[in-house]
Specification:
Elements: H1 3-27, H2 32-45, H3 51-59, H4 63-79, H5 83-107, H6 128-147, H7 152-172, H8 178-203
């Protein structure tokens, strides 16, 4: 087993355990006081002048942006005859969206109501914006590193930055609890990593 594959498997394991742990705390109602304290701290210390910026960041995680972007990227990969990468990207985004829908319906967690915010569909857990961005960004980074290995670190850095900004924007806007975005980031990154391992084993 190569060092790269061992690192990927370790990442998959860490993300899975983290997502399970956070989800257990949310479902068990143990995260409430910490979630509330963190959210109020962010609201108090992030200047209101930055709200517009974080609204724009949140928009990059919306279906209006992500699905056309994912569709265009998948088509481009198919034209470039990178079918494995196209499958990974498309499956990650579709899988992420499906997980969001199912888990929101099952958990039914109330959204924060600590200050006036914009209304969003569905329950609070997990953050759909964060999860699908994490799935897309991680899959895109994996594809970039497969196509051009020298770009691996840059692609990974951009993915982490994008995921972090979208996750934080959901907190700044007060529409999710911190554990919503933490679990979403873990689940979203887990999906393409696990799929990548599966595809490599299948087509090795």
């Amino acid at each position: 087993m190569t060092e790269k594959r061992r690192l990927t498997l370790l990442s998959v394991l860490v993300l899975a355990v983290s997502a399970i742990k956070v989800s257990e705390e949310v479902i068990g109602g143990e995260s409430g006081p910490i979630d509330r304290a963190i959210l109020l701290f962010i609201h108090k210390h992030v200047p209101g002048a930055l709200t517009g910026f974080f609204e724009a960041v949140t928009l990059t995680g919306s279906s209006k942006v992500l699905f056309p972007l994912a569709t265009a990227a998948t088509i481009a990969l198919l034209f470039a005859r990178r079918r494995l990468e196209a499958l990974l990207l498309a499956a990650s985004v579709i899988g992420g969206a499906a997980v969001v829908y199912v888990v929101k319906a099952l958990v039914g967690r109330a959204r924060p109501a600590l200050w006036e915010t914009e209304a969003y569909w569905g329950s609070s857990f997990p953050s759909g914006h964060t999860l699908v961005v994490a799935a897309f960004a991680t899959a895109a980074a994996l594809c970039a590193s497969r196509i051009r290995p020298a770009a691996r670190k840059l692609a990974l850095s951009i993915a982490i930055l994008w995921i972090s900004l979208v996750a934080f924007s959901r907190l700044v806007l007060g529409v999710h609890w911190p554990t919503d975005v933490l679990a979403a980031a873990c689940i979203g990154a887990f999906l393409p990593l696990a799929m990548s391992v599966g595809l490599e084993l299948r087509y090795a």
